[in-house]
Write a structure and sequence with these properties.
By secondary structure, the protein is α+β, with helices and mostly antiparallel strands. About 25% of the residues lie in helices and about 30% in strands. The chain has helices at about 45-55, 55-60, 75-85, 100, 145-150, and strands at about 15, 20-25, 30-35, 65-70, 90-95, 105-110, 115-120, 120-125, 130-135.
């Protein structure tokens, strides 16, 4: 599936969070959502991105944003990742890659000449009414919050 675009209605989804609770996009209606897709817990880029969002989580919340991370990792992996870095937001375990595919964040990657399928690091900013306002396909993992607030 192709990426979603600015102006598109964000597809409704549901998935298990780090507490084994089902989370729906509609749970966040009335709030802006930073929905970020990342490849794997505890890898350098993903850790930098998650920690940058976490370090600025208070500021993001003051500006009306909620943060939701999605990766194909398990609930147990998310629990360890959150505990290790004291992350304060929701991580969804998309082990079946349903949400990833729905949002065009799963597909062919070319790393060092090797082609494989995997997570395409992407962030969507979703409005209070569920409309996509911004799409980041080139994420600056160390300065992602600045990218979002720019």
């Amino acid at each position: 599936m192709a990426y979603l675009n600015i102006g598109d209605q964000a597809p409704e989804f549901s998935g298990l969070n780090q507490n084994n609770e089902i989370v729906h996009l509609s749970d966040f209606k009335g709030k802006k959502v930073v929905l970020y897709f990342y490849p794997r817990d505890n890898t350098p880029g993903c850790t930098a991105e998650s920690c940058n969002l976490n370090e600025n989580y208070s500021e993001l919340r003051e500006k009306g944003y909620e943060v939701i991370g999605v990766s194909p990792d398990s609930v147990a992996s998310h629990q360890k990742f959150i505990a290790k870095f004291a992350l304060g937001f929701t991580l969804i375990a998309d082990t079946e890659k349903t949400i990833l595919k729905q949002y065009g964040a799963w597909g062919e990657k070319n790393m060092y000449g090797k082609i494989s399928e995997g997570v395409l690091r992407t962030t969507y900013i979703i409005s209070e009414t569920g409309v996509i306002e911004k799409v980041f396909k080139k994420v600056d993992t160390k300065n992602h919050t600045a990218q979002i607030l720019k």
